[in-house]
Design a protein that fits this description.
The protein is mainly α. The chain has eight helices and two strands.
Length: 192
């Protein structure tokens, strides 16, 4: 009797680790400047489905952060995600003003709503806080620990006020640096 033919199938974790270029599987880069979320999400879901990893993005199975296989699979999905999105999707304040940054966060929330993923007000406020510069650390704490959490417009108003204070403090420091020094007279005998 002939021997049975056995095919070895690599584990999902091993198979996903062998994906070296996400762009060959997902040819679209998700960008804020292009309205390509729907097409990008179809490719991304297909990629996750191909490797039996949809549960990492759809929540159909609870996360298992103590399971080494689950951790490796999740890291692979995150790598794929970061490999096919433009940096403008990762909303961080950078050098933007509070007004520009808050408009960007609100625009992202509106775009998500347009594709059927509405963001509720508390999540919108918390997302606003997550991308702020470190100079707003005190404002983040003050807003995040208010009960109830302020509305998006209240949080933006508070941040605008903080931004004005920061600009005034910087201007005051400059004036003090220029005019606040003691009067020094320099002559041939040195400075007094």
């Amino acid at each position: 009797m002939p021997a049975a033919h056995t095919t070895l199938v690599p584990s999902t974790a091993t198979a996903t680790a062998n994906v070296t270029s996400i762009k060959s599987h997902i040819p679209i880069v998700l960008s804020m400047k292009a309205t390509n979320y729907t097409m990008w999400s179809v490719f991304f879901k297909a990629m996750c489905g191909k490797f039996h990893l949809l549960h990492h993005i759809d929540g159909s199975i609870l996360a298992a952060p103590t399971n080494p296989t689950w951790i490796q699979e999740d890291c692979n999905v995150l790598s794929w995600l970061f490999g096919c999105i433009h940096e403008n999707v990762l909303t961080v304040m950078g050098d933007l003003s509070v007004t520009e940054y808050s408009q960007c966060v609100k625009s992202l929330a509106d775009d998500l709503c347009d594709v059927g993923h509405a963001m509720y007000e508390p999540a919108l406020v918390l997302n606003l806080l997550c991308g702020l510069r470190s100079s707003f650390a005190n404002a983040v704490d003050n807003i995040a620990f208010k009960t109830p959490l302020p509305s998006f417009s209240e949080a933006c108003s508070y941040l605008l006020m903080m931004e004005m204070h920061q600009k005034n403090d910087a201007a005051s420091s400059t004036v003090l640096a220029i005019f606040g020094r003691p009067h020094v007279v320099c002559g041939s005998g040195g400075c007094q």
